[in-house]
Amino acid sequence: MTAKRGQNATRLDDPATAPPTVDHVLITRFNLPTPGPEGRVRQREGWLTGRADLFEKYCLPSVRAQTNQNFRWLVYLDPDSPEWLVQRLAPFVRDQVFEPIYRAEVTPAIILDDIRAGRTTPSADLLTTNLDNDDGLAADFVDRLQRIPPRGPRSALYLASGLILGPDGLFLRVDKLNAFCSVRETWNDPVTCWADWHTLLPRSMPSVTVSGPPAWLQVVHGSNVSNRVRGRLVASNGYAALFPTLPTDLDQPTRTDLLRDRLLSGPARLLRESSRAAVKSTLLFLVGKRGVDRIKEWRSGTTE
């Protein structure tokens, strides 16, 4: 029997309820106030309603479906969130699916205070994982992540393979520095997975990237700030067990569709992404993180 998030544990030998060997915390920004281009997008009418829909459709059920339930889930929300959102999330809070935390801002010290506040039986290590509120996890994501051996007192962890759901179908992608980043570290001065951009964590600590079946799901939709369709087109029917939140009515690509994607569409996407990555890397070198954010904010303002 596998315990579900929000249900009482029934067996101590169940892998979903066994004593943890690491303090694992998922961290999600729901509508936390942020400056820059993301803040502009979040202020648009309808953004919050759409994001709540995506959260309930993809993110939340994927966390509840985890085969290993030895983790906590902190969800950060704006203290000025509308009452309808608070009430909409209330049943999941009552079921202890996640812990809502209302903050106007979140600093490294505040994150650690929030993590320590719910700590019961201490473990030697802390494992933190970033989870965006419109994305999903494979059912064994937590279990696979916790089984990665630590590499020194602190290391960034990545499960490289994932799926991207876009308007034109499902795509398999390998991203060695993806947004589902984790940091495993001792409790001696921890920094968490929010210490830096997910692509930059390896600059300040050793990193471990693990291959395998798809471990995460990104959903490309109209209010995405930076997600785009990448990878290669695949049939969704082979991933239903790992991703129970995948839509069941997706059109399955034909052999012709797969061949066209392999020979034409896929290489074109790869070329575009390589160009974007090169430009971003150059900008990061020239103007730094703040400069890149200012450029994004300017572009966001010109497209509104």
From TrEMBL:
Composition bias (Polar residues) maps to: 1-10
- Give the region (Disordered) as residue ranges: 1-20
Question: Could you tell me which Pfam families the record lists for this protein?
Answer: Rhamno_transf
Protein name (record) = Rhamnosyl transferase
